[in-house]
Design brief:
It is built from six helices and seven strands. The protein is globular.
Amino acid sequence: MEKEMTTTKDIVAIATTDAKTLTAAVKAAGLVETLQGKGPFTVFAPTDAAFSAIQPEVDKLLKPESKAKLSKILTYHVVSGKMKAADLKDGQELTTVEGGKLKVTVKDGKVTVGGAKVATADITASNGVIHVIDKVLLPKD
C-alpha cells in the first residue's frame, strides 16, 4: 500500500526530495524563506527533466549575477492561495507572484497552465499545494 504524504513538510522540503533542480534554483534566487513562509501558495513545479530541456539557460540562471532574473522566473511559477486541481477552470487566468498571468486550459480532464502540462496534481504541503509540470514557464520580458 502506498504511503500517504503527510502535510507537515513545507513546499521547499517537498521540492528538496522530488525536484532537485527547482530546489537549487530557489536557493540561488534567495527564495527559500519566502516559500517556507506561511502562504498558502500554489506552486507549479517543473520536473528535473523540464529544467534539463533548457540546461544551458539553467546554467546561466544559477550564476550569482542572474539572481534577479532567476527570481522573476521562479515567482512566475507561484500563485498566492491554495488552488487544488479541481479549483482550476478552463480559460481561467492566474496572476503569479511575479505579476504575470498564466492561462489555464482544461481539456479532456487534462490540465495545462501556461502551456505546461500538469503531470502530478495536488501534492499537499503544510503551506500550500504543488502541481508538478512538464516544462519551465518563462515570463514575457
